[in-house]
């Protein structure tokens, strides 16, 4: 079968905040990608993927929604012909492995699908997000639908609120010293337990106050700075955000990285923030001097995302 590629995504800003309706900014990350394929002879990877797709097929078959319907006969036939999701996107790393899979299935089997070539009005974007939220909930228990949307459109997406999302133009990369990078924690993170911890914290009035009065304000400022190319202001705000996350989101930061996180703030060599729900996977880093950050983090695997 001939299926298009769908890319990983990075939520630059807005993790957890978007659950509570603050801003978010997600960008496609084309270093990792996935596509539906078929094989005559299963290896361990493709067999496991086919088994998982069958579970997803059952879930989709039982979706009782007027939002979307699928060509289930074609889906079933392809599964029987050895379909699997061939993906280089690491799972449990906060870069949207399930999002790319959901985008692939929607693209291949949704009936009357909204295509990326048509005029994407706000209503169409919100409908897509709602469909993807429904589909991706199979993987996480609760999904915003944002990861599949980003993967499907392959465009940066600005989340102003739950009801207001739009494609965003981000400044083109420069050959400067500054960078956004991924730091590999070498641990798998699971979304659902992390979201549950967050929801329990939300019962605390002090935590809710911090989220609306500090976390959301600095997140929104970072997004504005990034989109406008205000690099100096961006790093001031990212540092503040990094401090807030270290203080208030400790359970989402792997224990081995608490000191590494604080070292960045103390030295100004780099600033770390959560990439996705945390608990493992990638940690997102911002630095005004990528070479200095590389030296400071020489014991860890880094991956470049964007240059300033």
TrEMBL record:
The keyword Repressor does not apply. GO terms for molecular function: ATP binding; kinase activity. InterPro entries: GHMP_kinase_C_sf, HddA/FKP, Ribosomal_Su5_D2-typ_SF, Ribsml_uS5_D2-typ_fold_subgr. Coiled coil: none annotated. Signal peptide: none annotated. It comes from the Bacteria. This is Mevalonate kinase. It comes from Polaribacter gangjinensis. The lineage of its organism: Bacteria, Pseudomonadati, Bacteroidota, Flavobacteriia, Flavobacteriales.
């Amino acid at each position: 079968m001939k299926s298009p590629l769908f890319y990983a995504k990075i939520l630059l800003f807005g993790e957890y905040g978007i659950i509570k309706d603050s801003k978010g900014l997600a960008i496609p990350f084309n270093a990792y990608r996935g596509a539906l394929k078929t094989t005559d002879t299963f290896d361990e990877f493709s067999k496991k993927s086919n088994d998982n797709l069958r579970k997803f097929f059952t879930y989709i078959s039982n979706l009782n929604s007027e939002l979307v319907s699928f060509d289930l006969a074609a889906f079933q036939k392809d599964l029987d012909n050895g379909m699997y999701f061939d993906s280089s996107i690491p799972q449990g790393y906060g870069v949207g492995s399930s999002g790319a899979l959901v985008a692939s299935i929607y693209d291949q089997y949704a009936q009357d699908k909204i295509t990326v070539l048509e005029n994407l009005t706000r209503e169409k974007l919100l409908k897509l997000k709602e469909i993807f939220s429904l589909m991706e909930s199979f993987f996480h228990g609760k999904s915003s639908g944002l990861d599949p949307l980003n993967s499907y459109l392959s465009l940066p997406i600005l989340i102003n609120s739950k009801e207001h999302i739009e494609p965003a133009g981000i400044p083109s990369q420069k050959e400067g010293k500054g960078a956004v990078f991924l730091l590999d924690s070498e641990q798998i993170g699971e979304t659902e337990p992390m979201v549950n911890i967050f929801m329990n914290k939300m019962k605390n009035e002090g935590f809710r106050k911090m989220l609306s009065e500090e976390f959301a304000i600095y997140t929104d400022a970072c997004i504005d700075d990034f989109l406008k190319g205000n690099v100096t202001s961006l790093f001031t705000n990212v540092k503040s955000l990094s401090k807030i996350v270290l203080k208030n989101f400790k359970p989402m930061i792997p224990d081995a990285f608490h000191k590494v996180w604080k070292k960045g703030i103390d030295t100004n060599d780099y600033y770390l923030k959560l990439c996705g729900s945390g608990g493992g996977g990638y940690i997102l880093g911002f630095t005004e001097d990528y070479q200095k950050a590389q030296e400071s983090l020489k014991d860890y695997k880094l991956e470049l995302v964007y240059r300033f």
